[in-house]
Amino acid sequence: MQIKNKKKHKINIISSLPKHVAIIMDGNGRWATKKGKLRISGHQAGMKSAKKAIYFAKNHHLDALTLYAFSSENWNRSNKEVSSIMDLFIKTLDKEIHNLHKKNIKLQIIGDTSRFKIKLQNSINRSEKLTYNNRGLTLNIAANYGGRWDIIQVAKQLANQVKQGFLHPDQINEDIFCQYICMNELAPVDLVIRTGGEYRISNFLLWQIAYSELFFTDVLWPDFNESIFENAIHVFLKRKRKFGSSTIS
Ligand code: IPE
Ligand code: IPE
Ligand code: MG
User: Fold this and answer.
1) Catalytic: 26?
2) Would you say residue 249 has pLDDT above 80?
3) 204 with 145: CB under 8 angstroms?
4) Could you tell me if 173 and 192 are in contact, meaning their C-beta atoms sit under 8 angstroms apart?
5) Which residues are in the CB-under-5-Å shell of ion ligand 3?
6) What is the mean pLDDT of the chain?
7) Pocket mutation for ligand 1, best pick of 23, 24, 28 (most atoms within 8 Å of C-beta)
8) Whether 184 is catalytic
9) Is the CB of 61 within 6 Å of ligand 2?
10) Exactly one of 5, 12, 26, 231 is catalytic; which is it?
11) How does DSSP assign 62-118, residue by residue?
12) CB-CB contact of 130 with 160 (8 Å)
């Protein structure tokens, strides 16, 4: 991958680049309010930033990009906001899926989709099926996702394995647990970016980010662009990852 550094020289960075970046896309509502608009127009503008992030990730050969679109707690918002977000999901998915497919991007939704309207569930199923064999970039959209939900769904599956006699409780270890957690088939999350100025995880990936690097920016999600993404990668490249050891990996 080639990436421009601050002095606009191109530098080649090979092994230490993040393979998997996850983004908490926060700040849509405040962006809209600041402009005297309805919150939904912030979500609409946020979709454009999501597109920028996706094509940046694709063009820079990341293996995976995971976008936090709707948390398991976001149902606590007004019915009006929730239903307009859901309508926006359906509209955007149906509009963009063929472009994603053409670019060889594989789309996966992580989260409990059973609570969505059938129309949205159908859109998701069609999109996942269409792009299933694509190998360019895996794009995970976290929708009705919660890190705690993810851990609980693993616990349920393990409990079933034990109940059926396929697994002894003493055999449960990190490797076995990992086989059931969302995105276990992908590279570990190297970098988490959160926009919108809050310094918290808000029930996003919990298990998966045990050793991820974290990057926070005050930029509101609709103002996110390629140069902020590039800056986050530069900051990541300067980090010394140790994974508990006394030497740097
Ligand atoms: C993130 O932006 C999008 C979703 C959670 C769906 P917000 O809607 O949380 O924006 P703020 O944090 O209120 O500005
Ligand atoms: C996190 O943002 C969820 C998404 C970006 C989808 P929130 O706006 O829901 O998080 P809190 O409420 O500030 O923690
Ligand atoms: Mg928010």
Assistant:
1) yes
2) no
3) yes
4) no
5) 26
6) 94
7) 28
8) no
9) no
10) 26
11) -SEEEEEEEETTGGGS-HHHHHHHHHHHHHHHHHHHHHHHHTTEEEEEES-GGGS-H
12) no
Tokens 């969302």 map to which residue?
A: 182
| pTM for this predicted structure | 0.94
Cβ–Cβ under 8 Å, residues 180 and 167: no
State which ligand 1 atom lies nearest to the alpha carbon of 39: 8
Identity at 158, one-letter amino acid code: L
- Residue 198 Cβ inside 6 Å of ligand 2? The answer reads yes
Percent of the chain whose predicted confidence (pLDDT) is above 90: 92
Instruction: For the chain, give the number of residues.
Output: 249
Average pLDDT over residues 43-60: 98
What is the token pair recorded at 103? Answer: 């670019």
Helices marked H in 103-163 = 118-130, 147-163
| Ligand 3 centroid distance, CA of 78 (Å) | 14
Ligand 2 atom closest to Cα of 70? 6
Query: From the CB of 69, is ligand 2 less than 6 Å away?
Result: yes
Structure tokens at 242: 């140790």
Pairing of the two strands 213-216 and 191-194: parallel
Distance from C-alpha of 25 to C-alpha of 228, rounded to nearest angstrom: 13
Distance CA 91, CA 89 (A): 6
Cα separation, 2 vs 99, in Å, equals 24
> How far is residue 146's CA from residue 70's CA, in Å, rounded to a whole number?
9
